[in-house]
Design brief:
The complex is a heterodimer of chains A (about 240) and B (about 130).
Chain A (H helix, E strand, L loop, with lengths): L13 H29 L8 H31 L9 E2 L1 H18 L2 E7 L7 E2 L2 H18 L3 E9 L3 E6 L35 H11 L3 E8 L2 E8 L2
Chain B lengths: L2 E5 L3 H13 L3 E5 L2 H10 L4 E5 L7 H9 L8 E6 L2 H11 L3 E4 L4 H22 L3
Parallel strand pairs in B: 1-2, 1-3, 3-4, 4-5
Helix pairs in contact in B: 2-3
The chains are: A alpha+beta (about 240), B alpha/beta (about 130).
Chain lengths: ~240, ~130
């Protein structure tokens, strides 16, 4: 007996998106309690911790942060795929935004002995209009990617005005093998870090989501430099 | 320090936020539903209400609307807390909440938000007192 292949049916994303929205809400409550409680413990609000206890609690805090970030990534990617991602409008301070991102990623960088630096050229105006949350999402994805692939050294976030806002994120990793470049922005693809024993983490959605969001903003996200001393990703946004 | 009413059906969230605010010196009360909030608000006038938008039964939007229609709660400030950024933003814009936060809310963010609306509330309340 032969089974004829069924003709492909159009796939509706409405149900998965709805389910994911609900899961997003349901997961955020326990994650919030976990993250905030770990934060209070590490700040010594209940009582002072020993050095070992502090390290353990900070590890919990970082892991909870990562779970929130993965959840954000997943919901943003699915919404972008379903054409449901809407951009908000408002004013924001680009310098403050980069400082906030640095604060958010600092603990993860420090845990790997990586220095995280942020520099903004004077040419960048004090305020921009656009969706601050979406831009934050892209830059955080690039920063986490850079931290993930840097074994030690410095991750640099730079920004300048270049007919739009140009943000660069430079890592000190081993570079990306040419054979892996075509798949770089594919969802769920995880690089091997140039074949070196660099531990990689994440869902493999970070760069794919970042590019989808950048495209929605009519921006351009690309790999500008790739070599054995690291990569430079650039985000160019028409403001 | 001010009185804060937490309205959230998630026990862990209530206890976590309560710990943060109590430690900072606020007088905190917890209720687990919109219905309980209605009951509590007949007895007390909180300075700040932390309101979850997605609760079973009486929703956050209905609770928000109820608070906004009671003249005795004119000075009560409302901070919306939601897992959905869009929902939090629309509750602020459409229903007149004073601030909105998206979960996860860290201790520092919560304290800054409550302190911001509480300071404004205290200033307005002082200005409206006769003499």
């Amino acid at each position: 007996m032969t089974i004829k292949p069924e003709s492909p049916e159009p796939v509706s994303l409405a149900k998965p998106v709805r389910l994911l929205r609900q899961a997003n809400h349901d997961l955020r409550n326990p994650l919030n309690a976990l993250l905030a409680t770990a934060n209070m413990l590490s700040e010594g609000i209940y009582e002072p911790l020993t050095a070992g206890q502090l390290r353990a609690v900070q590890r919990m805090e970082r892991s909870a942060h990562r779970m929130v970030w993965l959840l954000d990534d997943l919901i943003t990617y699915v919404k972008a795929e379903a054409g449901e991602l809407e951009l908000a409008s408002g004013e924001y301070d680009p310098r403050r935004l980069l400082d906030t991102i640095k604060t958010e990623c600092q603990a993860t960088a420090e845990a790997k002995d990586i220095t995280l630096s942020v520099g903004t050229a004077e040419s960048v105006p004090p305020t921009f209009s656009g969706d601050e949350s979406a831009i934050r999402h892209i830059i955080i994805a690039l920063t986490w990617n850079a931290i993930s692939f840097t074994p030690y050294g410095t991750v640099q976030i730079g920004s300048e005005w270049c007919g739009g806002w140009l943000v660069t994120v430079k890592d000190a990793g081993p570079g990306i093998p040419p054979t892996e470049l075509p798949r770089l922005f594919e969802p769920f693809w995880r690089g091997k870090g140039g074949g070196s024993p660099v531990p990689t983490s994440g869902s493999g959605l970070g760069l794919a989501t970042a590019r989808a969001v950048a495209k929605l903003m009519r921006g351009q996200l690309s790999l500008a430099e790739n070599g054995p001393r690291g990569c430079i990703f650039t985000l160019h946004l028409p403001i | 320090m001010g009185k804060v009413l937490i309205v959230d059906d998630d026990v862990e969230i209530c206890e976590t936020f309560s710990d943060i605010l109590t430690h900072a010196g606020y007088d905190v009360r917890i209720v687990k539903s919109g219905t309980e909030a209605f009951r509590e608000l007949r007895r007390v006038i909180p300075d700040v209400v932390l309101l979850d938008m997605q609760m079973p039964g009486v929703s956050g939007v209905l609770t928000l609307s109820f608070i906004r229609h009671l003249s005795r709660l004119t000075h009560t400030k409302i901070i919306i807390i939601s897992g959905h950024p869009e929902l939090a933003a629309s509750a602020k814009a459409v229903w007149g909440a004073d601030l909105s936060l998206t979960k996860p809310v860290l201790p520092k963010q919560l304290l800054e938000a409550v302190s911001l609306v509480y300071d404004n509330q205290a200033r307005v309340a002082r200005a409206s007192q006769p003499g």
